[in-house]
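Render DUF3108 domain-containing protein in 3D.
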Amino acid sequence: MKKLSTVLLSLFLTIKIISAQDLDYLNRSSFKAGEKITYKLKYGFFTAAEATIQVLPTDIKFDNKPTYHLMVEGGTSGSFDIFYKVRNRYDSYIDQKEYTPYLYTENIREDKYTRNDKARFYQDQRKVVATKGVFKSPVSQTFDLVSAYYFARNLDLSGVKIGDKLSINYFLDDEITPLDIEYLGKETIRTNLGKIACLKFSPSIRPGRVFRKDSKLYLWISDDANRIPVKAKAEVLVGSINLEINTVSGLRTPLKTQ
């Protein structure tokens, strides 16, 4: 139960990462202020947690440049909430043109454990100034997990082929880490919103307290102009868990369903 929030973050946020290398931007941003998407995290037949991602309106600027305010909230629900309550929030402020982050914050509330961390990104200096120190990056584009997803949504994936592996550098748990994702092709997913045509990916994962050494993680992202996460499935130490889209609103382009 204690690791449920780790599972939620691993599934919900790693669904958002695709490479920034050698890929072209789409003609316009795939999202806008006011977008809101909710998800349910299921363990077996039970809804263990719920999550929300939003693009919030903001007047905050960094280096005199306008930003998008991205927010992710996740928490346990139902009987899981009785035994171990989780209420976590992640915020990221990104450049409106380059989609790279300026500031990332975490507000963690897990039962009696609490933590508040922040990280300031200096892309031109290839460094991240965080709560626990200064971290150097090997590249000029480094992301937190929230900003990585929104950056990825503005990439043109038309040239990606089955078997291609993509990579990105992100800052998490006081280290900068590359993540590799393999593209597996197209698949239509049945959801409570209808059938949605998707692009399927499989990211690399770290074995340990949540995932086995041979665990697999599969991610489905809508194959339309929105590029929103639709579903994720992961094998964990005991059984498997699924992240499923629940509601959408405020999308720049109407979601295509069948």
